[in-house]
Amino acid sequence: MVKIGEVEAGEFPVILAPMEDVTDSPFRSICKDFGADVLITEFVASEGLIRDAWKSRMKMQFEQGERPVGIQIFGSNIDTMMKAAEAAEAAGPDFIDLNFGCPVRKIVMKGGGAALLQDIPKMIAMAGAVVKSTRLPVTAKTRLGWDENHIGIVGIAEQLQDAGIQALSIHGRTRSQLYGGKADWTRIGHVKSNPRMQIPVFGNGDITSGPGAKEMKERYGVDGILIGRAAVGNPWIFAEVKCFLENGSLPSPPSVSERIKILRLQLAKSVPYKGERATLFEMRKMYSGYFKGIQGFKPYRMRLVNAASLEEVDSILTEMHYL
Ligand SMILES: Cc1cc2nc3c(=O)[nH]c(=O)nc-3n(C[C@H](O)[C@H](O)[C@H](O)COP(=O)(O)O)c2cc1C
């Protein structure tokens, strides 16, 4: 059993990677229904969190059924991060995750996310300080390094462990790569095979299928994996991956009617959570995933994306039963 501190995370945790404006509570709980072992909130700004901003509070919400669930926080100021961790603890998650990997310019310019990869002593001091400020286990998610010339992940991982981090997720890219190129799992494997590492090491990057997950598990020996983009509009990927890891076979893909049912469930969960307008807007990025590979979907996609009300989405979905 893989443990994050004392929290049981499954034999080989298959984790929904945190994604801003995607992995909100409604979507996470659907991924959980399909077998995701661990869930993590979208990143929450430490500055907003200590101001008790409405958006931060909303991002920290989760359903009890999502457990084990982590709240991810980011920021550049150690003191603020400590206070944010205390506030996040009050929301009752199972662990707190530190974002040391976000490559987005507006975050990095302010010294948060992947910027910490340019100041490892500060990253380690921040991790240690947050560990001391909460009773919950603290985990971290980062990348291989700042750029190809500064790949320090093996040493960074050791230092994070020494600072009290209880599990480490590694996205196999550098900050400079953003999301381009291919994730380099060899380097994730180097962290895992370092005999000094005791904490769970979770690999992340470009997993899109059951066979892909199995290959990374077996080849690199990681303790678990995170799946991000391939889960967008495709929550049943967790069932596929779990089935393939357990039996070496793939379940048949969901029928169009099943896809419509799951999508309707996500809409129904999302509206009370964020309202009709935001639901319509944020669901736009999900439609292609939900109906990937379904012949004749293209004209419906445009209609779904342009739909002005949930009623309209609902009637388009009814028409789509005939696909
Ligand atoms: C739209 C989007 C939003 C993301 N937001 C976050 C985030 O809030 N926190 C985080 O740690 N990583 C974030 N990521 C990175 C993912 O968690 C993951 O590390 C990355 O997408 C690589 O995994 P994948 O190849 O399975 O997608 C985001 C990625 C995407 C595409």
Quickly list its features.
single chain; globular; 2 domains; TIM Barrel; 323 residues; 8-stranded parallel barrel; two-stranded antiparallel sheet; Non-ribosomal Peptide Synthetase Peptidyl Carrier Protein, Chain A
What is the typical, i.e. mean, pLDDT? 97
Summarize the biggest pleated sheet: 8 strands, parallel, barrel
Tally of helical segments = 15
The CATH class of the largest domain is identified as Alpha Beta
Order of helices and strands: EEEHEEHHEHEHHEHEHEHEHHHHHH
Question: What is the CATH homology-level superfamily of the largest domain?
Answer: Aldolase class I
Strand order of the largest sheet: 3-4-6-7-8-9-10-11
- As residue ranges, the low-confidence spans are none
Strand content: 5-15%
Helix content class: 40-55%
- What is the number of domains? 2
Radius of gyration computed on alpha carbons: 19 Å
Question: How many E strands?
Answer: 11
Q: Which fold does the CATH topology of the largest domain refer to?
A: TIM Barrel
What overall geometry do the principal axes of the alpha carbons give? globular
Based on the coordinates given, report the CATH architecture of the largest domain.
Alpha-Beta Barrel
